[in-house]
Amino acid sequence: MGFLVILVALPAVLSAGPQLPSAASKAAEGNSAPVLNRTFSLEGVRGPADRTGIPGRLDHMAYDSPTRRLFIACVAHGSLEVIDLDAGKRIGTIDKLPGPQGVAVAGRFVYVATGGDGRLNRFEPGVPRSARSVAVGEDADNVRIARDGKIWVSFGGEGPGGLASFDGDTLRPDRKLGLPRMPEGFQLHPSGEAIFANVPAGKRSAADGTVVGLKRSTGELLWERRLTGRAGNFPMTLDPAHDRLFVVARKPARLISLSTRDGSILGEAPCPPESDDLFFDARSGLVAVIGGGELPTAGDPGGAGASLDLFAIDGAGRPSRWSGSPLPPHSRTGALAVDRRTIYVGVPASQSRPAEVREYRLPD
Question: Domains of the chain: which residue ranges?
């Protein structure tokens, strides 16, 4: 396993800032689309197509506000790439990772879930050869950090799955919450015990998806919502100040708003296809959906409809499309940097250009 050396240790992660009221009247304003500021080249980041059919696929990212660095899990290439946003360039690589998928930053540590071996890896970039890891479960995927310092990871592959937590300092296993299938996107309520998870019927299934609310200390089911007629619910984001949860289903492509109290559906709207990340921006009250366009099929490279779309949320929690900017094909993951008013979007390599990360300015 290769290691990145960064001389400055990572200080504690700051909060994303105060929750502000949702933008109930956004749809009536001048609808500013996200503006492309700059791009960061990821020269040499490639890789074969996986089950999605996307060559060189990029997976999730993490933004670290104190160091102003961006960490990109390059699942097809088997690396974690690091961009210094102030310097405007890539500054390091952690390579030879077996399918890096989820990534999160806390304190001086970077946590990476690797689906190829089902493990959670912890790196201290300021110290060479600092890697530690612990077994999670098959297809270890998304990573979230709770306010108590616990590291939560989703796992499951094609069979039963769940959510596992670990002590951030020792990586000692804390608890596992079992689910009938692998949870994809999940979120931790910042001020309570609730954990919310998307539980689609399968990676390629067209069957109804499910969203659940659980008590993280016991795994007790708080509520369960079946998304009748909607499948492939992968990404999820949270607006805790207004008790709202946002998920995206892929079949058909819909942004769905739910109540965190009981899982009731508040509203939904069409959105870009094949989304793997979405974010709630408390400052503007907008939800941002990154959709990579249609998947490749035999004789068709796919990617049609790729877009970064913004949605206004009205007082009842109902979403409506506000504006959008087209994206290169298969750009479907990213990170929100609230303090910079930007969204970063991962763009896999094509025949005409290397992989890159694009920085888009958000409206205020």
Answer: 26-361
Cα–Cα distance, 101 to 339 (Å, whole number): 25
d(CA 288, CA 310): 5
Q: Which fold has domain 26-361?
A: Methylamine Dehydrogenase; Chain H (2.130.10)
Q: What distance in Å separates the CA atoms of residue 128 and residue 150, rounded to the nearest whole number?
A: 24
Residue-wise pLDDT for 170-206, tens only, equals: 999 999 999 999 999 999 999 889 999 999 997 778 8
Q: Are 322 and 50 in contact (CB under 8 A)?
A: no
For residue 321, the Cα-to-chain-centroid distance in whole angstroms is 20
Give tens-digit pLDDT for 140-159. 999 999 999 999 999 998 88
Partners of residue 308 on adjacent β-strands: 290, 325
The one-letter code for the residue type at 228 is T
**Residue 12, amino acid:** A
CB 292 within 8 A of CB 329: yes
